[in-house]
Amino acid sequence: MAVGIKTMAIVVAALGIKSFVHGILAENKKPASGEPNVFHGFVICEYSSDPAVYFGFISFAFLVASTTTGLYSVFYPYKGKSVPLNALVQNATWVVFFLVALCVSCFAGAMLLWATITELLHLTHKVHHNMNTDCPTAKTGLFGGAAFMALNASLFWLISLMLTDNTRDDYFDDDLPEISKGIDGKVYTVDSNEKQQIKVQECP
Fold it and tell me: Whole-angstrom Cα distance, residue 92 to residue 155?
């Protein structure tokens, strides 16, 4: 079964939305801080149920899947026809959105990993020798910001895919043979190479 551009777009969007939802869940489920238990010379932090790390890693996984699918969809040979890279890079708008999609995806992934690993470190390193510690968690807003960046990344991949579709149409339209009617009434087809030869012969 051949994969179409619409199918690829749906997959990229669905994965991006899943990454966004799990990032928001990580932000909402993360406790503001832990409860310090003071002992002689050290403090042990107790945290309530904190699934933020779980949701954070899932959000990152969906972001990687969305980015990989978006990157693959841009260069996928739909209907068995692939557009060469030099034809794509001639479209300045495509280049801009493609690079933006890559950068936003990397930034979103870095934010998600930063927030998730920070939260994991807080949960695993519970013993503190600083008696004034307030048992912190990952900074508020990191998961939420990363979630929105992941959603934006999928949107930029969708725009890149749309521009790829336009470039494909322009590229393959130029390769279509031109149908013309001769003096004898017969129908002839002239491909792009023959059209160039005719133009050269017509020049004085």
Answer: 18
d(CA 201, CA 193): 13
Confirm if 152 and 23 have CB atoms less than 8 A apart: no
- The H or E element that residue 43 is part of is strand 42-46
Out of 11-15, 149-153, 183-187, least confident range: 183-187
Calculate the average pLDDT of the chain.
82
Handedness of CA 121, 122, 124, 128 (dihedral sign): positive
C-alpha span between 197 and 92 (Å, rounded)? 30
User: Phi first, then psi: what are they for 138, rounded to 5°?
Assistant: -60, 150
- For tokens 């012969």, the residue is 201
19 contacts 59 by C-beta, under 8 angstroms: yes
Which position has the higher pLDDT, 62 or 52?
62
Look up the pTM and report it.
Answer: 0.78
Taking CA atoms, 55 is separated from 48, 141, 147, 184, in Å, by: 16, 15, 11, 73
To the nearest 10 degrees (0 to 180), the angle between helices 92-124 and 5-29 is 30
Backbone angles phi, psi at 10, to 5 degrees: -65, -40
